[in-house]
Amino acid sequence: MSKYKIGLFGFGCVGQGLYKTLSENNADAEIVKVCVKNKEKKRSIEAEKITYDAAEILNNEDINIIVELIDDAKAALEIVRAALKKGKAVVSANKKMVAENLDELIALQKQYETPLLYEGAVCGSIPIIRNLEDYYASEQIEEIKGIFNGSSNYILTKLFQEGKSYEEALGEAQANGFAETDPTLDVGGFDPKFKLSIILQHTFGIRQHPENIFNWGIQNISEKDIAFAKERNLKIKLLAKAHFDGKVLSTLVAPHFIDEQNPLYHVENEFNCVLINGKYASNQTLIGKGAGSLPTGLAVLSDVIALTQGYTYRYKSADFTSGGSQAVEVYLSFNDIEDIDKNAFTSISESYIGSDYGYIIGKIELEALQQLLNGSSGVNVVFTSGKQTEIEIPNLTYSYAN
Amino acid sequence: MSKYKIGLFGFGCVGQGLYKTLSENNADAEIVKVCVKNKEKKRSIEAEKITYDAAEILNNEDINIIVELIDDAKAALEIVRAALKKGKAVVSANKKMVAENLDELIALQKQYETPLLYEGAVCGSIPIIRNLEDYYASEQIEEIKGIFNGSSNYILTKLFQEGKSYEEALGEAQANGFAETDPTLDVGGFDPKFKLSIILQHTFGIRQHPENIFNWGIQNISEKDIAFAKERNLKIKLLAKAHFDGKVLSTLVAPHFIDEQNPLYHVENEFNCVLINGKYASNQTLIGKGAGSLPTGLAVLSDVIALTQGYTYRYKSADFTSGGSQAVEVYLSFNDIEDIDKNAFTSISESYIGSDYGYIIGKIELEALQQLLNGSSGVNVVFTSGKQTEIEIPNLTYSYAN
Ligand SMILES: NC(=O)c1ccc[n+]([C@@H]2O[C@H](COP(=O)([O-])OP(=O)(O)OC[C@H]3O[C@@H](n4cnc5c(N)ncnc54)[C@H](OP(=O)(O)O)[C@@H]3O)[C@@H](O)[C@H]2O)c1
Ligand SMILES: NC(=O)c1ccc[n+]([C@@H]2O[C@H](COP(=O)([O-])OP(=O)(O)OC[C@H]3O[C@@H](n4cnc5c(N)ncnc54)[C@H](OP(=O)(O)O)[C@@H]3O)[C@@H](O)[C@H]2O)c1
């Protein structure tokens, strides 16, 4: 008989991953009840473990760990709230729910003196939160960034390596269990934004709501954009980035051109990568699968085991000024130049205008870019500027067709 | 006044790194006394903190953490032994001392109920021991390997990228503080063997004395070997490798040919890389500086902070059979074919014999290779075979000069 009794919510991709990894480990914890939604579905576990009633788990006093692995952020918040209020320890892999409600979740942990862990919510199998909390707590981190979304990276890999269509690649990512139920979260750059928001808390002790982070996804990347990148031996990767100089925080999620010298160039398929730049150890790189049943199951299991050892996050905090205006350099592609307000750019280094495709490479304030993107259709943007991981676009001379 | 008072042994490269990183963090720990050896040296710290007498620290009851950062493994063992016996918590970065005495050190920790941590001893700034102890404890790791010696990797980078001579490159590594006081430990492949031995304990719960691990270093790499690699677009990297199938353990440290597809190809200078292959999360990669004052200082500081939080290693253990005979594929180069017993090879796929340089590429048992290397001079060996990180040598046709 284990000391720790788990009530599990959700038995989908990650829930089953946890079930398998836990059953193969001799942890002092066992799953005693599983709450799911759909009564019609066949399950691979004993019928008496299944329930459709959340209260049956939440009111069970024998259950001391709640693992929340459902695909509904709203319902997840209610479960996690209720569990914490009952003094149960909680593990969740729901980045949307955690990122959007971190203030409340930290307060609840404090008030009810019970921990919430969420390693599985951030970059799948990469142990990033634990390392930020423990090992990197004494590092002075200046920048943290990387590929935080396995599903988009999988799609980009298929687009670049195999010349697949966007729809085909998305379908494959979904079939492999890498994609969120709502694919917009992945391909729109929301999911990496949730992760970035959580990471900010554990890296810098800074709370920034995902709403306040700029995001642009990969769903508007056209064949022309891919051809542009390929001609210059570049790839496009969806990056999440945060830079903190001790006072001002700059954050964003956007596709970036990446050249071969960049470690991110070689991170393919559902793999994620976190790059940490600190004052003492300079560059640190962590690469691992960012999604999938067993990789994420392992991360969730590591949290369960941490709970059985009394582990909690410490939540340092820092004062900071919000980012204000960030100047960025971008490649902006469009169908029709008439749709584009060129004055939004502070400087333009290259432009091309064709009959149904054109682009501008130039410097622009992030807020002006946001306005431009909001007000236009048929546009896409890929970032080119910045420190270290980004590159200067090689200055090619182009023939201007019309 | 901090609760934790540190007695520091050694104020060289790493000792000063710890001093700086600690002084910039608000840890609940302070260095109250520093023991060094040479009375003539000028020090950058207050004279009243300096002592030349180990007993002054070891007998000081106020001091509850001993940090051992000297470059003498024998003296280090005595300090650590004495400290543990006095019930003081200890941090060390001495891989030789830890690897060669791990049985005793584990027993002492148990007997005196006081912890010893040594993150800084293994791969500098990469938090590998902590992750193996915590996060990866529930992973089923099949293979762990990588570049574990910053100094050799720095030398190899200079040889390959800048065409520097071996002596010049070694001198630079020493000037930068990456090399051990005795360079044979680094370039002879002993230092990575110590680290591998420590890693085996924390990955598989297996104790293997460094004496029982095959090692061949980089000090015999000739210009011809480098030319051979370059012609095939390969690099040579000094790898430490361990494979455990749940019963049989295979381990070795040796130079390997690495191609561009391999993540290790891009790990240069003093950077180290650890590749972990597990059943659940498949490949995980950690890259960071493997040496240097501040990177190693950070690792040591993280141990100090862990001690203030009551952290200890758990030391799982496993039954296993020793490796027995491993068949490997190697490139063996020589000055004179007369020195080489070709019958030691079980098969030969390629050979070249010139007037003062020749090579054989073939399969051989590790023990036979060891004998052959022991009995010959003017030879060098680079491994080509194995799983994942190693490559098949492309089959080039050669003209045979004589
Ligand atoms: N998939 C990944 O690789 C990955 C990686 C990292 C994090 N995550 C996160 O992990 C969580 C789960 O993802 P998933 O991919 O495992 O989702 P999934 O495969 O779609 O499974 C979702 C599970 O939740 C159950 N469920 C939904 N609403 C429920 C409710 N109100 N009460 C009880 N059960 C409910 C579903 O029940 P039925 O079985 O009855 O439909 C299903 O078992 C999400 O937060 C996701 O963001 C996923
Ligand atoms: N350098 C790196 O990047 C690195 C990385 C990882 C691990 N390490 C490990 O860290 C340890 C220290 O390396 P290091 O590079 O800092 O060495 P170092 O620069 O040569 O400094 C050695 C220090 O130890 C002192 N010392 C030597 N014997 C002593 C004794 N018996 N009693 C008291 N003090 C003594 C020396 O005193 P004096 O100042 O009086 O000469 C000096 O301060 C070694 O175990 C090494 O393997 C080093």
UniProtKB/TrEMBL annotation, chains A, B:
Residues 10-118 form the Aspartate/homoserine dehydrogenase NAD-binding domain. It holds the Pfam family NAD_binding_3. Residues 127-305 form the Homoserine dehydrogenase catalytic domain. Keywords: Amino-acid biosynthesis, Methionine biosynthesis, NADP, Oxidoreductase, Threonine biosynthesis. The keyword NADP applies. NCBIfam families: PRK06349.1. This is Homoserine dehydrogenase. It comes from Fulvivirga kasyanovii.
